[in-house]
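Tutorial sheet, problem 5. The two components below are modelled jointly, 559 residues in total.
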Amino acid sequence: MTTITVARSEWVKMRSLRSSIGSLVAGFLTTVGFGALVCSLIKESEFELPGFDPLELSFYGLTFGQIAAISFGTLALSQEFHQSALRVSLAAVPRRGLFYVSKMAVTGGAVLVVGLLAGLTTFLLGQALIGDAGIGISDTGALRAVLGSAIYLALMALFAAGLTALLRSGVAVLAVLIPLLLLVPFIFTDFASGVMSYLPNRAGQTIIRQYPDGLIGPWAGLGVTALWTCAALLAGWVAINRRDA
Amino acid sequence: MSSIEIRDLSKEYGKTRAVDQLTFDVLPGRVTGFLGPNGAGKSTTMRLILGLDHPTAGSATVDGWHFADVPKPLRQVGALLDPHAAHGGRTARNHLLALAVSNGIPIGRVDQVLELTGTGAAAKRRIKTFSLGMRQRLGIAAALLGDPAVLLFDEPTNGLDPEGINWVRELLREFAREGRTILVSSHLMSEIAITVDHLVILARGQLLVDMSMPEFIRSRGTPRVRVRSAEPDRLRTALAGRGLVLHEGADSEAILTVEGAAAEAVGVIAAQQGISLLELIDEQISLERAYLDLTADQTEFTTGLPIVGSRSEP
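Model answer (structure tokens):
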């Protein structure tokens, strides 16, 4: 029994659940769809406005795509707490570290791949729709945003997965995370307002701005998200390792 | 040849002691019946063997291994704990496939166990559409996947039809003949009586009985003989001379019973007196009777106390 065989088993589990595949597809569609929608609605008169950022605009859908990523990450763990399925899983793979690492690797990996596809698609489609003011893949920040948005989505999925392992309930995690991620940005609109900048989503999303001017830079921002994710994964691991299944 | 070794095993959930200093072995080549009232600690013990729950004290090992350290777990131990413990959104085949892949079991084996357990026709159906009996069969299929040396079955006949119950019995007998180690719990005493060789009985987390089936029956019943004679009055007098009392049978006056004696004793007395006997049989008490007698005082005693280990009982 190796990490490879257990990861392959986790892959079988993932692809055999409609809801898992569904949330990955939804992640792609919402990221690309909302990005394209906003880019097609932008008017030429807005190109000259001071806050105009064609890169960020094409990644507008990331806010919604991350909800799908979080749902996917939550589901990867919550399926184990449903009807004590975890007992069957651990009776087959009793080494809990192996089980946990493999599951998280498959979860993060799947989101990373879909995130890269979605990032590239939404960038190219969005810039084409913006037209003259659009930028190319070799322009400042473009490649960073494509790569970074995929990493961001994977980190958010793992953040949710770690929390679900800790709380043993997908519903609880989604009930906390979704309002936090969707409402907080609308309530506190000032992008760089102090403490808010260090929330996992606020910090990480600096990666999609062409010229970030906030408290933290793009990669440092993604690093902050990664720290949140590590904390959640660690807490989840302690819970999985210590608790009775 | 594998065996399960339980040593001073205890498990507490909060202040409730679900398993209390258990020590016993489950040996290969025989079916061991695991009995006890609801909440006696049977399911908890099985979870402790599998390392799913962490023991408060003591150890449960398989061939000296803690289950978490076993290299190929599904090949060593196959377990059926809870027929509902499978995600309803997955098809039966995918459920088994994920388990097989994790232990490097060839994919062909998945279809083999599906056929073996009579779930082949439903392989591509989602588990949530399954009846309890079908879930039970799927759970057994999962347990058999690795062709394991040790089988842990928690109420395997729950929800099965008579044909299924018969099949499980044959399966367990067959595995015992092959030298595997089998621990099976059930509340169906008539089933246990004709399936198991050895009994382990728990009550309130403690070990009450660890002995072979015939030994247990002998230990619980006062011997009783059923006798039919052409000369009942002479027999009555002869037995009375040895302090034995002849009772009239419940259904027929011709059938008489002698309490507290074995067939050997009654036969010898009759022969000495030249009394002709038409029928002479040792009557055994049923497993159910013996078990209920044993647990009656235990159950009475536990009423009013918290039901330990209840979270695992359906």
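Marking note: Chain B has eleven helices and 13 strands. Full credit if you identified this.
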